[in-house]
Amino acid sequence: MRSSFDYVIVGAGSAGCVLAARLSEDPNVSVALLEAGDEDSAPEIRIPAATLQLAKTKYDWDFYSESEPGLGGRSVPLARGKGLGGTSSINAMVYMRGNPGNPTDFDNWGTDGAPGWSYNDMLRYFIKSENNERGASKYHGSSGPLSVQNARYVHPLSERFIEAAKQAGHAYNEDFNGASQMGVGHFQVTQRDGERCSVADAYLHPVRKRPNLHVLTGALVLRIQIEGRRATGVTIFRCGNEETLRAEREVILSAGTYGSPQTLMLSGIGPAAQLKAFNIAPIVDLPVGEDLQDHVLAPVGYRSDERSFMHAGSAEDVALYMTKKQGPLTSNVIGTGAFLSTKDERSVPDVELYMAPVLISDINSPPSADGFSIAVSLIETSSRGKVMLRSARPDAKPRLLTNVLTTADDERRIFAGIKAAMHIARQPKLAEVCVSDFLVPKSESDSDMRDHVRKFAMTDRHPASTCGMGRVVNSELKVLGVDGLRVVDASVMPTVARGNLNAIVVAIAEKASDLIAGRRS
Ligand SMILES: Cc1cc2nc3c(=O)[nH]c(=O)nc-3n(C[C@H](O)[C@H](O)[C@H](O)COP(=O)(O)OP(=O)(O)OC[C@H]3O[C@@H](n4cnc5c(N)ncnc54)[C@H](O)[C@@H]3O)c2cc1C
Fold first, then answer.
1. Is 128 touching ligand 1 by the criterion CB < 6 Å?
2. How far is CA 172 from the centre of its chain?
3. How far is ligand 1, taken at its centre, from the CA of residue 473, in Å?
4. Are 140 and 124 contacting, i.e. CB atoms less than 8 angstroms apart?
5. In this predicted structure, what is the pLDDT of residue 220?
6. What local confidence, expressed as pLDDT, does residue 361 receive?
7. What are the strands, taking DSSP E only, across 344-424?
8. Taking a C-beta distance cutoff of 8 angstroms, is the pair 217, 35 a contact?
9. Cα separation of the two ends of the chain
């Protein structure tokens, strides 16, 4: 096996798969894609409704947060994909791009130290990456690798949510990724004909046979090799041995919002005081791992006398899926949702609602009765957390403190979001099937709301911003103070975008590929 490449990419997740495919389009460059996890061969990855079964398997790093002050001191699960496709192989497949309103998420990035990342810059790459079954338009592409489709199956309770939200005054939005995110509607999903389309399915698998692309699974990157102030390669642990792979042009870190800062710190790039505490000699003192941002998620739930999604998976459903790729098993469960602002005058959302036609109190426990849940996600946040080292050992899990809900403003917004969800649940279209409350705050007082979120909130698993542009990398995603090293993944977002992050990471990696290859966008 060769040990020298032009580009060495660390992590075959959403970003890494795009980079590997785009950079290896040039047959004259060699690309190594290194992934700590395995091949993405499990059937649960392909079958949308089986997604939850991937938690705590070999496809999940199974991280947990530190004790969270904003969540009553609880430690909450922070799933992350491990294996080809990374988190896009275990995510909920909602296709979402962040907010195009005024100001857009991306225009804010410009003022946060990321010029060149405006909404229009990103739109070009959203379109380039997308193959939307609705066809090409001002906002959409139909010839990119990432398959985006309407959900093949939407549960009747999810349709009721749309009608109830309209009764509560929310306008129907035909396309959350068009002119505006606001309103209630059906989510489109990253699927191809009833199966998950992970970023590995979209970008990597179709080009795996290129002779200049070398994909190594089971390769844990221990640290980046740095000579003077230049990254020259990586040290990996694979099949029981340590090896060094050389990067003639660049090392590109795409290990995700937790993995990228951990690898930088283990390589001497990070907060000097923290590195010294672990006997790691600091090479560049940067705020790596700081400014962790995530969307916090709080559920409300109601028992219903209409059959819920808990009955999906019957022999009939399995047969329908196996023969026609139709029916409940094609569902990502959250088929419908809404974006709203907790401040009436604004045209940009700070809350995303997901309708789940099933009771959830604990994401890892099966529901015990028919019912539905509305999960309230706070998509604009002022709370800031941290990724820190636990140990100087690269196989030790990092310490992750999300710090969600630690500002008064975030508390106010999530309380308002929960009240908006409860208001929708009280509208006739849902009220007529509601039997009783299952998981709701005792009252709408601040103290009962606080009690509810402290007991039941978790994160939406949208971590970002631990290697933010303007702080750790520049607007070309180059690590400040080190040559030959970039970070390309969700960690570079200066602030976390409003909405689900996969499509945004794909667009970031598309733009990064052009920057790295010196191509005009
Ligand atoms: C349960 C869940 C549901 C979600 N649902 C949605 C959704 O519906 N829609 C949406 O848009 N987003 C969703 N997301 C978020 C979205 O999928 C992620 O934000 C996105 O995939 C992150 O991409 P990334 O490239 O930054 O990181 P990842 O895709 O996590 O990639 C990082 C890769 O690096 C590898 N790696 C890490 N460390 C090392 C190392 N030292 N050596 C080698 N390899 C390493 C990892 O194994 C992984 O493959 C969800 C996330 C979760 C967890």
1. no
2. 25
3. 20
4. no
5. 98
6. 67
7. 351-356, 371-378, 385-388, 399-401
8. yes
9. 34
Q: Separation of 398 CA from ligand 1 center, angstroms? A: 15
Please report the pLDDT score of residue 362 as a whole number: 59
In 239-363, beta strands by DSSP E: 241-253, 269-270, 284-285, 290-292, 296-304, 336-340, 351-356
- DSSP secondary-structure letter at 449? H
CA of 423 to the centre of ligand 1 (A): 33
What pLDDT, in 10s, does the model give residues 108-165?
887 777 889 989 899 999 999 999 999 999 999 999 999 999 999 999 999 999 999 9
Ligand 1 atom with least separation from CA of 81: 30
Cα-to-chain-centroid distance, residue 517: 26
Q: Which residue has the tokens 């006997």?
A: 279
pLDDT > 70 fraction of the chain, expressed in percent and rounded: 98
> Counting atoms of ligand 1 from 1, which one is nearest the CA of 255?
34
Please tell me the distance from the alpha carbon of residue 350 to that of residue 340, in angstroms, as a whole number: 6
Does residue 213 have its Cβ closer than 6 Å to ligand 1? no
Q: What is the pLDDT of residues 363-393, one digit of tens each?
A: 556 777 999 999 999 999 999 999 999 999 9
Q: Is the CB of 190 under 6 A from ligand 1?
A: no
Angle separating helix axes 408-425 and 446-456, nearest 10 degrees: 90
Q: What is the pLDDT of residues 273-293, one digit of tens each?
A: 999 999 999 999 999 999 999
pTM over 0.90: yes
Both structure tokens of 339: 């974006």
> Under DSSP, is residue 4 helix (H, G, I), strand (E, B) or coil?
strand
462 catalytic residue (yes or no):
yes
How far apart are alpha carbons 7 and 417 in whole angstroms? 45
**464: nearest Cα among 339, 289, 297:** 289
pLDDT band at 436 (very low <50, low <70, confident <90, very high): very high
* Cα 324–chain centre separation: 29
Q: Which two tokens stand for residue 46?
A: 């392909």
